[in-house]
Design brief:
The complex is a heterodimer.
Chain A lengths: L8 H10 L5 H4 L9 H14 L10 H21 L2 H12 L11 H14 L6 H15 L3 H14 L4 H14 L3
Helix pairs in contact in A: 1-4, 3-4, 7-8, 8-9
Chain B lengths: L6 E6 L3 E8 L2 E4 L9 E2 L2 E3 L5 E3 L1 H4 L9 E2 L13 H9 L3 E4 L5 E5 L2 E4 H20 L5 E6 L5 H13 L3 E7 H10 L5 E9 L4 E9 L2 E10 L4 H20 L7 H17 L5 E11 L5 E9 H26 L8 E5 L6 H11 L12 H14 L6 E3 L6 E4 L5 E5 L7 E8 L8 E7 L9 E9 L10 E8 L5 E7 L7 E6 L5 H13 L6 H4 L1
Parallel strand pairs in B: 1-11, 11-12, 13-18, 15-19
Antiparallel strand pairs in B: 1-2, 2-3, 2-4, 5-6, 5-7, 8-9, 9-10, 13-14, 14-15, 16-17, 20-21, 20-23, 22-25, 23-24, 24-27, 25-26
Classes of the chains: A mainly alpha, B alpha+beta.
């Protein structure tokens, strides 16, 4: 089907307006069980039909914007689903009670996934140091520089050779002095 | 199709540029009136005020090194304080000065030019070549850039196009363009590696070609490694030999240095054909007493290979990373395409063959393939029945500045584009009016080790106690690989006003002024050919 034909434009605009309610499998027109080549084939098929380049020559800005929005979501769906680990995590997310909130693979889902990887590459090397570091991170989020500085200072004393803590300490020192 | 618009594909290279169009369905490189198909990316400002671009301009490098601007692509979109610019300061014979906002400018006599203005002169010449060929005005173009170019470099290249009065249809990655020229209309189903060693940059891209779809699986590059570096190695050796023989440091003399540079480049090219070259400069330099000294050396291919071995190895480290990112091994690649003049060097061809365990493809000319691909893409964009799709990736991780010198990734490198991601920010103070963010590109958690793209300020937030206003910021990477940032109030949906408060690039006013200057600038075409 040639979606660049004007009779399809209202349909495209409608899809763009409602795409936020679709999960990635729906965006790619695939069953939840799809994997591997199926995902790539669908991505290629949708690229042939909906790539913004195909609509380059049309002058209707509303349709162009709609196509752009849809296609960006197609790319996003492909990016997440082609990655085995992310696909499994995503499928669990959208099958759970928080489905509506987890239709887009969010920072949180990514953070959860990266937790394990992080364990291996902790900033602080000692359990106590790591505890202080985590607490300081929370303080930093709340812009409590003095508190964060003191925590990291203690952590740095526990681990004098840890250059990352040292660098962070210097940064925090600047911050608390209004830098 | 009669009367269809023509759009150019321009390969704006570090050393050479090339322009192509699609005529009657066939992509063709357009030669200038003197039969030249590649044109030195050199802009020379002659004493009489005339400006020359291309191979004619290059002829002046030796005699007027301060007014012949070469390899300017190495400087475009860079900050003055960057390592790359520091390096250029030591090797460039023309004057590089600092402009506003840490930008880089080139100074020729009493005039100062931005890098996009210099590039615009080259683009203007490319346009003139096409217009002379087709006999009418052509204003639309696809311009290629190294795949690893960051947002600043892409933006400034696009600005160069605008300054030259062009409508830039697309900023296209060079290796992707090459793959397109290679696979266009062939209905291939294979994985290809594009090994692109240009004058100043190295890129490797791994693509999956599925008939009409060209998907970039990964790309990796080094924006400061190219054929110029090979020349440098020969130059260093020549200077060293000369000093040993005569006790004179020729590097201190600009004229001598540019003669050496010219000879080094020619020796490198000759070594592709022969095992041994004679390098002879009859009158290199005078000593303090006025005695003339010549330079007379022999360079063998194996000596040269030793000089550049580490540079060659660096390219394969980059290849390793690209393959790893595409989750492939070198042996799983079905075809290898070579791009860029330096890939004609036997040491490169042999090393590539060895690395990928297959014969590199030789059907496409490494000097012309990028322009051809750009022309195909330009034509496809204008064609309503287009059936070629390029699915590219972003070469560098887009990052958000957090606390201190730290950043966190927002869009990872090698993510397919176009794409967007959103992040939500919550106000930290009562009645906070604005949110400020800094965005970067690079692979380090440290902001100071990444490239700053800009600082954005989102203003006009509604007055409310802290924590009550949520601002959703959308980071988009478009089909040009360019970054766009916008913000809205989550609750009201109101778009926030966006101001870029820090950016190394040109402002709209700068561009408009440069456009006017460029339109007035006359490129003296073919003056030397008529002599």
């Amino acid at each position: 089907m040639d979606y660049t034909q004007p009779q399809f434009w209202p349909q495209l605009q409608q899809l763009a307006a409602t795409i936020d309610g679709l999960d990635y499998f729906q965006v790619l027109n695939l069953p939840n069980t799809a994997a591997g080549n199926q995902i790539r084939d669908s991505y290629y098929g949708l690229s042939r039909a909906l790539h913004p380049d195909k609509f380059f020559h049309i002058t209707d800005e509303v349709t162009k914007a709609a196509v752009h929005k849809i296609y960006k979501r197609v790319t996003e769906a492909y990016t997440i689903l082609k990655d085995e680990k992310k696909r499994i995590k995503y499928l669990a997310d959208i099958s759970g009670p928080d489905r509506a909130k987890k239709l887009r693979f969010t920072e949180e889902s990514e953070t959860e996934q990266k937790e394990q990887a992080k364990q291996a590459t902790k900033v602080a090397k000692t359990p106590k140091g790591e505890q202080l570091y985590q607490a300081a991170l929370l303080d930093m989020k709340k812009s409590q520089w003095d508190k964060a500085y003191k925590g990291i200072q203690t952590a740095a004393m526990l681990e004098p050779s840890n250059s990352e803590l040292k660098a962070l300490l210097a940064d925090l020192d600047k911050k608390r002095k209004g830098g | 199709m009669a009367g269809r618009q023509i759009a150019m594909g321009i390969d704006l290279g570090t050393s050479n540029s090339c322009v192509a169009i699609v005529e009657d369905g066939v992509p063709k490189v357009i030669a200038n009136e003197w039969g030249e198909r590649t044109h030195a990316s050199v802009v020379t400002f002659l004493d009489d005020g005339a400006i020359v671009v291309g191979n004619d301009a290059k002829k002046h490098i030796i005699t007027s090194p301060k007014t012949a601007i070469s390899s300017s692509k190495r400087l475009i979109g860079r900050y003055f304080f960057s390592e790359e610019v520091k390096k250029a300061l030591t090797v460039c014979s023309y004057d590089i000065v600092e402009g506003p906002n840490n930008s880089v400018r080139v100074k020729v006599r009493d005039k100062v030019y931005s890098l996009p203005e210099i590039a615009a002169m080259i683009l203007k010449e490319m346009r003139a070549i096409v217009e002379a060929h087709v006999g009418h005005s052509v204003t639309q173009a696809v311009i290629t850039v190294p795949a690893n170019f960051n947002d600043n470099q892409r933006q400034e290249t696009k600005n160069a196009g605008r300054i030259a009065g062009l409508e830039v249809l697309r900023i296209l990655n060079e290796p992707t363009a090459a793959a397109l020229a290679y696979g266009f209309g062939q209905n291939l189903n294979q994985k290809v590696g594009v090994y692109d060693l240009g004058g100043g940059t190295f890129d490797i891209s791994i693509l999956q070609i599925g008939e009409d779809v060209f998907e970039v699986l990964s790309t990796q590059g080094d924006t400061y490694l190219g054929g110029d570096d090979f020349d440098q190695r020969i130059m260093q050796w020549m200077l060293q030999q000369f000093q040993q023989q005569t006790g004179i440091d020729a590097a201190r003399d600009r004229l001598a240095l540019s003669k050496i540079k010219d000879a080094a480049e020619r020796a490198k090219i000759e070594l592709s054909e022969r095992d041994r070259v004679a390098i002879h400069i009859p009158h290199l330099i005078n000593d303090k007493q006025g005695n003339a000294f010549e330079l007379d050396l022999q360079l063998t291919r194996s000596q040269f290979n030793q000089m550049v071995m580490d540079l060659v190895q660096r390219t394969f480290k980059v290849c390793d990373e690209a393959l790893q990112s595409a989750r492939l091994t070198a042996a799983e690649v079905d075809g290898v395409i070579l791009v860029g003049g330096p890939t004609r060097l036997p040491i490169i061809t042999n090393s590539v063959r060895h690395y990928f365990q297959r014969e590199p493809n030789t059907d496409v000319d490494p000097d012309l393939v990028v322009a051809l691909g750009a022309a195909i893409q330009a034509d496809a964009l204008l064609d309503q029945d287009t059936n070629t799709f390029l699915l590219d990736v972003t070469p560098q991780t887009l990052r958000l500045g957090t606390v201190g010198d730290y950043t966190e990734p927002v869009i990872d490198r090698n993510t397919s584009i176009p794409i967007d991601r959103t992040r939500t920010f919550v106000t930290a103070a009562d009645n906070q009016e604005k949110v400020k963010i800094r965005i970067y590109q690079g692979e380090s958690r440290k902001a100071s080790e990444c490239q700053l793209l800009g600082e954005f300020e989102f203003g006009g937030l509604r007055p409310a106690p802290r924590g009550m206003v949520k601002v959703e910021v959308t980071f988009e990477i478009d089909t040009d690989g360019l970054v766009n940032v916008s913000a809205r109030d989550v609750e009201t949906g109101q778009k926030a006003s966006t101001t870029i408060t820090l950016s190394g690039g040109m402002s709209e006013a700068d561009i408009a002024a440069a456009q006017a200057r460029n339109a007035e600038t006359e490129i003296a075409r073919g003056a030397l050919h008529q002599e």
